[in-house]
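>> received
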Amino acid sequence: MKAIKFIAKDQNQTDFARELTKRVRLHFKEKKISTFGDSRMVVKAIIMISLYVSALVVIFTVPMPAWVALILMIFMGVGEAGIGMGVMHDAAHGSFSKRKWLNTLMTSSMFLLGSSVINWKIQHNVLHHTYPNVHEWDQDIDSKGLRLCSHSEQTQKVFRYQHLFGLLLYGLMTIVRFVSDFNHLKMYKDMGALEGQKVNYTKTIFAIALHKIIYLGVFFVLPFIFTPFLWWQVLIGFLVMHITASIIMGTVFQLAHLVENVREPLPNEAGEIHTQYAVHQLETTCDFGKRSGLFSWYVGGLNFQVEHHLFPHICHVHYPELAVIVEQTAKDYNQPYNSYPTTFAALQSHLRTLKRLGRGELNEAMA
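>> returned
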C-alpha cells in the first residue's frame, strides 16, 4: 500500500506542529496526569454496556407487549452508539487505559455492534486518520448508494435531494458494516493493509464468521426460545436497534468532516499533499458543540474532532483542555481552526454541504 506524503509548504507549518506538540506535552507534565483514560472511562463503559445488555436481558426474562420491547430496543441502540463512540473508539486507539489487556477487552466491544475489529482499525485508525477527507483513501467520504460525500465524484440526479434524506441513510451504517465485513477484509488484503496489522487472512475470516453466527444466534434464535414474539417482530426490533445507533453515530461522524470550510485536498501526480501533516488534520476536521458537557460525554469527545485527529492516542476525557491549547496555538501561528458553537449549527452546515454536493456546486473551501 503506497502511502501519500505530506510535505509542509512553509516553515510556519512545521513550527506550528512542533510548538503544539511541545505545549501539549508540557500540559500533561505540569498537571502530572496520564494521557490515558481514568476511572471516568470505566464508569462510562459500565453505563453504556449495561444499557445495552440489561435491556436485552429484560426482553428475554420479563413478559411484555411488543411495543414495550421495541422501546427497549431503541434504548439498546442508544447504548450501542454510546459503546461505539465512547468506549470502543478510545480502546481501539489504545487510549482507554494504560493497561493493554483492558484496551483489547474494550476494543472487543465492537462485537456488540456486530462488526469486525480488524476492519474497523484499518478503515478508521489507518486510512481515515492518516488521510482524512482524501478521496479514494478515506472511506468515510466514499459515495454509498444514494449519498454523495465528495467533490471529487460526479454528481447525479439521484443525489439532488440528498440533504432531505441523508440523515436517514446513516441509519444503515452498522447493518452495511455487518454484511460487508468479508468484502472489506478481502479489499484490505489486496491493498496489503493486513500485513501492517500482522493479521492472518484465513484465521480472521473464520473468526469473523464465528462472531457473526453467535451474533445472529443471540438476536434471531434466542428470541424464539425466551419470548413469544413472531419472526417479523424480532426482525423489526433488530432493525430499529441498528437504525437508532447508526443515525446517532453516522451523524456525529459526518459533522466532524463533511461541513463547510473543511478541505478535501487531493495528492498530486507524485502522491504528495503539500501541507504539513498536523495542519492537514486542522484543515479537514471540525469541532462542534464543545460547551455541552453531557453531549460530549455521550459521544466520547467526538465533537472535539480536531483534537482527536491531532492526538488520537490521547483519551477523549482530556480533549476540552487540549482544545484550548490547540485553538490558541493555531491562532498564534495563523493556522485554521474549524469549530461550530453548537451541534445544531454544525448540523445545518452539514445539510447545506450535502445540498451543495448533490447539486454539483463546488465549495471553494474544499479544494
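>> DSSP finds 16 helices and four strands in the chain.
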